[in-house]
């Protein structure tokens, strides 16, 4: 349904590149390399500024956010300033263990409660509840899920061979 509408997808992983096809544009903006002694937030602020420049060039009317933490806060600030109709999707808990986590969650919730944010989805009910506990307006919260048709209890316990194990994990750790 998006093919006939101008759209921009910003990928946060991979090598820097731009792919233009008809009405669509894919721009990969990876996290910048910063000095190893620089605080993590310095890299995030630089990264956010690069993404915001790309978004400002595109001039969206609607925004779908699919990232979290401090980067999400910065992008939501831009969306609020520009009054973009925004949906946000997460797949993890709003953390509160460290002071930094509490600060980021508080700022994220503050931005998510803005009027331009229509709905906020999170994977499964416990993660969605963590957003509400952090202060998100419950009327905006939606738990997205898949139907669980199989559970671990349905399968026999497996044992590992005595040989060496090499494990590969592909995914995003949130």
Number of strands: 7
Given the helix and strand composition, which structural class is it? alpha/beta
Helix content: 25-40%
Shape assignment: globular
End-to-end Cα distance: 29 Å
Count, helices: 4
Strand-and-helix sequence, N→C?
A: EEEHEHEHEHE
What portion of residues belong to β-strands?
15-25%
| Major beta-sheet overview | 4 strands, parallel
Given as residue ranges, the uncertain stretches (5+ residues, pLDDT < 50) are none
Strands ordered across the widest β-sheet: 4-5-6-7
Spatial extent as radius of gyration: 19 Å
Summarize model confidence as the mean pLDDT.
87
Task: Please give a structural write-up.
The protein is globular and about 55 Å long. Helix 1 runs parallel beside helix 2 and helix 2 runs parallel beside helix 3. Helix 2 links the parallel strand 4 and strand 5. With 174 residues, it is an alpha/beta fold. The protein contains four helices and seven strands; from the N terminus they run βββαβαβαβαβ. The strands form two sheets. Strands 4-5-6-7 form a four-stranded parallel beta sheet. A three-stranded mixed beta sheet has the order 1-3-2, with helices on one face. The mean pLDDT is 87.
Which characteristics define this entry?
174 residues; alpha/beta; 4-stranded parallel β-sheet; 3-stranded mixed β-sheet
Protein topology:
Blueprint: E1 7-11, E2 17-21, E3 24-28, H1 40-58, E4 62-65, H2 69-82, E5 85-90, H3 99-112, E6 117-123, H4 124-133, E7 141-144
Parallel strand pairs: 1-3, 4-5, 5-6, 6-7
Antiparallel strand pairs: 2-3
